[in-house]
Amino acid sequence: MSTDIPKIGIVSLGCPKALVDSERILTRLRAEGYEISPTYDGADAVIVNTCGFIDSAKQESFDAIGEALNENGKVIVTGCLGVDEEGIREIHPGVLAVSGPHQYESVMQAVHEASPPLHNPHMDLIPAEGIKLTPRHFAYLKISEGCNQSCTFCIIPSMRGKLRSRPAGEVLKEAENLALSGVKELLLVSQDTGAYGSDLKYEESDFYGKAVRTKMYDLLDALGSMKVWTRLHYVYPYPHVDDVIPLMAEGKVLPYLDIPFQHASPKVLKLMKRPGNQMELLERINKWREICPEITIRSTFVVGFPGETEEDFEYLLDWLGKARLDRVGCFKYENVDGAAANDLPDHVDEEVKEQRWNRLMEFQRQISDEIMQEKVGKTFEVLIDEVDEDGAVGRTKGDAPEIDGEVFIDGDGSTELEVGDVVNIKIHAAEDYDLWGTLA
Q1: 138-374: what CATH class?
Q2: In the CATH scheme, what is the code of domain 378-439?
Q3: Has 292 been labeled as part of a binding site?
Q4: pTM
Q5: Residue 147, marked binder
Q6: Has 15 been labeled as part of a binding site?
Q7: Residue 145: which of 197, 216, 183, 201 has the closest Cα?
Q8: Which run of H or of E encompasses 106?
């Protein structure tokens, strides 16, 4: 029997929620003594964690599977695309196994069959925080899986199932382990963060002898005692989100809300099966800013949704002008296999989608630039992400990694900073989404 330590490679595609799945798989692998191979040719098998949300993501996943087969030959497929095993095997019949999202046992079973583990107790040790794919100073913390919404453009519930929240005590223990390992920022992710705990009827769970309700407010209040940045992503605008804003004003949670509004036109929102009273949302946004003036609001929108008229699009631009959101992403609608929106009438021409996308992004760029210029001359806390011979790069509390802006730092002391430091930076220049500054 060979005593060579088995090595497994992994390719992780898709959103931060899929990244957390990959991290859990890596943790299981290391717990069983596997080494993680950074190359195809050094691996005994390769896991491809796929994304299957839209056609372009599906194609990227199919391409990644094909590349892994060509370079290695032993490929295990998991993730969102895995719900379509027949489609995967039709294109790539040589894959060893296919499983859907968060089916860790199926993945490990396939790994065992491809390359049995060596049971060595000296290697069956992993850090309490698990194996991470993010830099050491920040980590994604998944608080629930699945979704109970029925948005017509989305098939997440059919891929990842109904909402399944993790007990608050379990989440808090993982957060504590991450903080103790040196993580300075926790990014809370799920399909529907605002709905956290509703499936469990907000039941209490234990955290060091204290009962904590499995509810967004209670979880965030408890996380606020850990002295790390806590950032909220994918928050559906439920009324109880208002209750969290005072926690931001108190400094327990980062003053940052990622709320995918998707559109503003009541007609389009109804077609999407999204909340439809955006005028009421404007009032709420203004109230949030009164309570927490530092709050940064990020959102995403879809243009070219079936039935969207020029009037609907102009309504959206008008709403954006009033909302003055800090960060905005925009997607051109495309059909997703199995989504109800595919069957709606009056699909928008691709050329019109492109024009509307460009108009919205330019409109928002001007708003963002005005907001950023107002930051010049002010001082902000910045978390350092990179340091080199020219200076450092970091993010303010209003910037999530890889999707928002950055702060470029030069001048005295900038090259002596370390990744994970939180420092005060005085801003001397701004442009669209990024800032430039020096140590205050």
Answers
A1: alpha beta
A2: 2.40.50.140
A3: no
A4: 0.76
A5: yes
A6: yes
A7: 197
A8: helix 104-114
